[in-house]
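Dataset card, provenance and construction

Sequences and ligand SMILES were collected as paired inputs. For each pair, a complete structure of the chain with the small molecule in place was predicted and serialized as structure tokens. The example below shows a pair involving magnesium ion. Curators did not alter the output after generation; any descriptive sentences attached to a record were derived from the structure itself.
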Amino acid sequence: MESTKAVPKIKFEDVSLIYDDGVKSYKAISDMSFSVDEGEFVSIIGASGCGKSSTLSVLAGLRNPTAGRLMIDGVESRGTSKNRGVVFQHYSLFPWMTAEGNVSFGIRQAMPELPIEEAREAAVSYLARVGLTGFEEKYPHELSGGMQQRTAIARTIAMQPDILLLDEPFGAIDARNRVVLQDLLLEVLGQESAPKTIVLVTHDIDEAILLSDRILFMDGKSVAAEFVVPFERPRVREAIYASNEYMRLRQSLMRCFFNQASSEGAYI
Ligand SMILES: Nc1ncnc2c1ncn2[C@@H]1O[C@H](COP(=O)(O)OP(=O)(O)OP(=O)(O)O)[C@@H](O)[C@H]1O
Ligand SMILES: [Mg+2]
């Protein structure tokens, strides 16, 4: 039983990804290696176009590596699976289904044997967790962007994936609602039955520090630097932002973005 603990939940082994449309090809990820332990929350940050979404699409199984391997629980994984849930930047709800319909559809995808009435009840309770009680019968076009994203998060979490993959989930949300949704995510993830292993793609340094245990900085189509986030959970935004550790970490990450790696040894 002990030995399985040594196996990371996710392992990227020398992964390269080449996009090839038959006319031209482009290498978006080059010999990238990292691992994520079970229960860890890891953020991937980096400049636009550095390969973050490409990395997430390999993690999700939406694209297979051109070279190298994606290992899940120590076994090579190719293609998608129900134990990995993904939330994208652009809310991917079915426009012809209500909020409840979208969430219960996700639940039935994950658990086809569940009777529809039970899936509906579960959907209502997941919508309540993200503050959408009273909006169950609304269609996506009747919801604000933030509400649509909450519905998408509720749907993905309701599917009870082992691994939650988030690609700029709050990228299109205004600053105030972004804070609300980040706090909501922290709260929902603290609840039982929440996914335990999470990878978040973001270019928001503060979001990465607030939410994650470890931050991977991507540059040169691979991981260029790695930072451990030293804060305990549950986390309180104000206390973190007032601390010296936060200021130091933020500065180190800013230096990465401006390509001035500190001599503190963070660069790998
Ligand atoms: N389907 C595709 N075909 C060809 N090239 C692609 C494809 N998708 C992405 N790329 C290229 O791969 C590189 C990495 O793209 P990716 O979307 O992973 O970047 P990103 O770090 O997520 O950027 P952003 O922060 O702007 O979302 C970019 O140069 C992009 O043009
Ligand atoms: Mg992207």
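Derived descriptions for this record:
Residues 46 and 218 are 5 Å apart (CA to CA).
The first strand starts at residue 10 and ends at 20.
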